[in-house]
Structure formats: structure tokens, C-alpha cells
Amino acid sequence: MDAAEYRKRGKEMVDYIADYLEKIEKRQVFPDVEPGYLRPLIPDCAPQDPESFEDIFKDIEKIIMPGVTHWHSPYFFAYFPAASSFPALLADMLCGGIGCVGFSWAASPACTELETVMLDWLGKMINLPEEFLAGKDGQGGGVIQGSASEATLMSLLAARTKTIRRVQSEKPELTEADIMGRLVAYASDQAHSSVERAALIGGVKIKDVSSDDTFSVCGSALKKVLEEDKASGLIPFFFCATLGTTPCCSFDKLLELGPICNKENIWMHIDAAYAGSAFICPEFRHLLNGVEFADSFNFNPHKWLLVNFDCSAMWVKKRSDLTGAFKLEPLYLQHHHQESGLVTDYRHWQIPLGRRFRSLKLWFVLRMYGVTGLQEHIRKHVRLSHQFEDLVLQDGRFEICAKVVLGLVCFRLKGSNELNEALLKNINEAKKIHLVPCHLREKFVLRFAICSRTVESTHVKFAWQHISELATDLLKTWQQNHHQQ
Questions:
Q1: Residues 3-26: pLDDT tens digits?
Q2: What family does the entry list (predicted)?
Q3: What are the tens digits of pLDDT across the range 390-423?
Q4: Is pLDDT of 195 > 90?
Q5: Helix extents (H) in 99-218
Q6: What architecture does CATH give domain 100-356?
Q7: What top-level class would CATH report for the domain 3-76?
Q8: d(CA 392, CA 382)
Q9: Which of the chain's ends, N or C, has fewer CB atoms near its CB within 10 Å?
């Protein structure tokens, strides 16, 4: 394919994507395929000779689209928002076109410098304390990770290194292996599984901290487990606080937890993967109060801020805590500005060496929407979640299972877990809308997340009407079976 054909085919692809997104409402939100559907549709081996673009293009609808779950459909209410917008898609095209691998400043100065500035922009939008910003001569700063899972892992590994060095300076007789065997990390029993996975990769123990009736961790719960573990000779070193838990969007009590972590020399990382985008709205910023006690903080613009995956924003108070843990300088990566104090080499801030020019997506979106446009997007989703909550509350057969703060409603039929499992099965088999469940304590709960950029009140009303009708049919069958038994 030469440049002339690229121009032609590129325009065709832009039209196809625009049509796909404009007409996505007409597509069945969840695919009607079985595992292994794709293999019989394509050859066993790559083609020996080139094929035409036309043939490849035809196969998109024939082979790919039948197996796609349409995350951007206004009938997709599962998992979390997977934000996307036309400015972000255009920026991704430019990112792919430039094709730099920005592991160091010298590898592409614009790639590094735009990221530093965009993370400062974003930090100021959510009113992060000055310590987290790079500025012109700050000790902190931000970096774009691939996901919140990577941000949690990076913070845990940096905390591990920092703690080992501190303990060895206080007790030189202890080996690194001695200390590693006693390190323990903590997170809420509602925290995302990626926190446990980070501890698994990091080779350290991790313990749940019990959440309260609002599914939040408070200071007394953390203090209790810390006292028990210290008495047993363990070394607490890391706590992951969650703002907007995956099951129900609950918020750990930072103002209680932060001072404890600071006093005990425990690195506090804040995972606000989904909820963090809402902090650009002044009415939700109080949910971040206490961030001043944290060592690192993360949220995902690719969830709710109209920047397509992957774009996970992470900030640290002291960037030397990261670079000190991961810095290696082979000759082939060195450049004459690296020790000047004027540049950032982001390879020291992340697990992989290479990185894409992801800050272009932020730059395009923040400029083309502005803060006010993004605030309205968040507020619209929150309004729609409360609309759905009101519909649930008007039906005495259902109950709300957690406080609705942002764009997520946790609800269920009053009754057994088996009844609610059957309801969810019927909903997803009908394929008119798509939901996923969670467990809150011992209850099987349905999650209704406002996800799509294009979702409107009519879609929410349709979803509720559909759920209500399926519930009516299910309860009738359930009662008949119960009566016969």
C-alpha cells in the first residue's frame, strides 16, 4: 500500500468508523456467538500472497463484528464506561502515524514533554496538591500508564524498594530476603483484584481490611490489623485506598486512613480508576479530600473522560521514589541531557521500556471539549444513574444495595441469590441490554453502570422497562415452580 492508496483507504476507514458509531444503537449489544466461532471462518495459515484491501474490508462485517461486544452502545450498562470520542480517535491516528517509541526524552522530546504538561493540566483540573505536579522544578509529577493495574503495581514495587532500604539502614543485620518475608500490604475487602495481583507479582503478603456497612474502609479497621501484624513481627509497608470500588463505587475514608499511613511509614496509594474523572466537578471534589496524605494517586481518563483506552493517569509526590527503584542506564539508552535535571525519561516510571505517544489523546480531548464540556459529560451520566435509581425505588419488588454517588446503581430483586442470578441470565440472554453482577457481602447484585457517551434518558427508560418485564415473567415462573414443589 502506497501513500495514494493509504489516503483512499484511510478515508474509507474513517467513514466506516463514523458510521459504526453513529448507527451502533441498531446493533445487538452482546454477540450471539459460541466460543471458537472465529477459527472456522479464517484459513489455518497466513496467506502466501498479498490479498486486496477490499477483501479484508469485507471480512470486518463478516468475521469480526459478529463477535464484538459493543462497549459504546447506549444499551451497554456493564463493567464501566470505556470512554471514546472523535477527537481521541483522531489523536490515536496521529499517534500511530508518528509511531515513536517514547522510552526517553531523546527518543522523541515532544512525546515526553507533552505528557508531563498534560498530567499537570489534568492534576490541576482535579485540584491535586501542588506536590503531585511536575511544574518547572517540582519533585513530583505524572505519567500515563496503560492501566490502573500497572499504576498499582508500580506504586507497590516502589514502596517495597523504599521500605527495604529504610529497614536495612535501621537494622543492617537484616538481609533483603529477611525483610521481604515480613513485608505485608493492605487493601479493602472491596478493592479490585489487581491489588492482590500486584502483591502476588511483588512477592509480598497482602491482607484485606474489613469495610464497614457502607463498604468503605475506616481508620479504626486499618489500625486494628496493623497493630496485630506489627505484634507478630510483620512489616506493614503499603496500603491501597480505593475511591470508587468496582462492586458498588464506595469510597474509603482517606482523612482517617492517611494520617495512620504517614505515621506508620506506610506508602498510601489511591486507586480512583473509575471515580477519579468525576473530581473535575467541584461538587464531587470533596470525595478526594485526604489525597494530600497519599504517596501516589491514579485514575483512568480512558474510563470516563472521553479518552479511549489506554490512558491511565498516575501521579507521585516524589518521582525519585519511582526512578530510584527502577532506574537502569544501558549505554544504548543514554543521552547527553539525562543528568541535566531538565528532562524526564519515562522508562524509569513504568514496567515496559517502550511507550506510545498517548498524551496526544489528552491534548486533543482537553482542548476540544474544555473543562466545562467534560464536566457536563460527567454530570449527565450522574443524572441518568439517579434516574435509573428512582425507577428501581418505585418498584417494591426491587431494592437498592449501595448508596448511589456517581454513575453506578447496584440493585436486585428482593429474594434469593438464585432468583437474581436467573434474572441476570435472562437479561443477558435476551441481548437487548448488557449487565454484569457483583457480590456485596453475601448478596448477588446487579450492577447498572451508565457507560456510553451517547446514552440518553430514553435508553435508561427502555432498559428499566425491559428489566421490569423480565422480572415479572421470572417471578411468575418462580412462584409456579415453588407452588408445585
A1: 998 899 999 999 999 999 999 999
A2: Belongs to the group II decarboxylase family.
A3: 999 999 999 999 998 888 999 999 999 999 999 9
A4: no
A5: 109-125, 148-170, 176-180, 193-202
A6: 3-Layer(aba) Sandwich (3.40)
A7: mainly alpha
A8: 15
A9: C
What is the side-by-side strand order in the sheet with 267-271? Answer: 141-145, 312-316, 296-299, 267-271, 235-242, 183-188, 205-209
Average pLDDT in the chain: 89
In order, the DSSP letters of 34-91 are -TT-SGGGS-SS--SS---HHHHHHHIIIIIGGG---TTSTTB-SSS-----HHHHHH
- Distance (Å, rounded) from C-alpha 454 to C-alpha 451? 9
Query: Can you say how many angstroms the Cα of residue 179 is from the centroid of all Cα atoms in its chain?
Result: 32
3-state helix, strand, coil in the chain (%, to 5): 50, 15, 35
Q: What are phi and psi of 357, to 5 degrees?
A: -85, 65
Strand arrangement of the beta sheet that strand 398-400 belongs to: 398-400, 408-413, 443-449, 436-440
Q: Dihedral of the CA atoms 320, 326, 330, 334 (nearest 10)? A: -30
Among candidates 145, 113, 84, 124, which has minimal Cα distance to 299?
Answer: 145
Question: What region, left, alpha or beta, does residue 294 occupy, with left being phi > 0 and alpha being psi -120 to 50 degrees?
Answer: beta
Cis-peptide, bond into residue 310, ω within 30° of zero: yes
C-alpha grid cell for residue 251?
Answer: 469510597
Confidence at 328, pLDDT banded by 50, 70, 90: low
Task: Give the distance, in angstroms, between the CA of residue 320 and the centroid of all CA atoms in the same chain.
Answer: 25
Three cell numbers, residue 354: 517502550
For residue 8, give Cα distances in angstroms to 1, 12, 57, 145. 10, 6, 13, 34
pTM of this structure: 0.89
* DSSP state letter for 245: -
What residues contact 352, with CB distance under 8 A and at least 6 apart? Answer: 146
Burial 361-393 (b: 16+ CB within 10 A, else e): bbbbbbeebeeeebbebbebbbebbbebbebbe
Radius of gyration of the chain (CA): 25
Give the closest residue to 134 by CA, choosing from 123, 145, 146, 147. 123
Q: Which of 168, 124, 123, 161 is nearest to 142 (CA)?
A: 123
> CB of 249 within 8 A of CB of 406?
yes
Q: Specify the fold of 371-483.
A: Aspartate Aminotransferase, domain 1 (3.90.1150)
Single out the residue of 298, 273, 450, 287 nearest to residue 377, CA to CA.
450
Q: In the predicted model, what is the mean pLDDT of residues 228-254? A: 93
> pLDDT tens digits, residue range 354-376?
788 888 999 999 999 999 999 99
Chain-centre distance of CA 197, in angstroms?
Answer: 15
Cβ-contact 280, 375 below 8 angstroms: yes
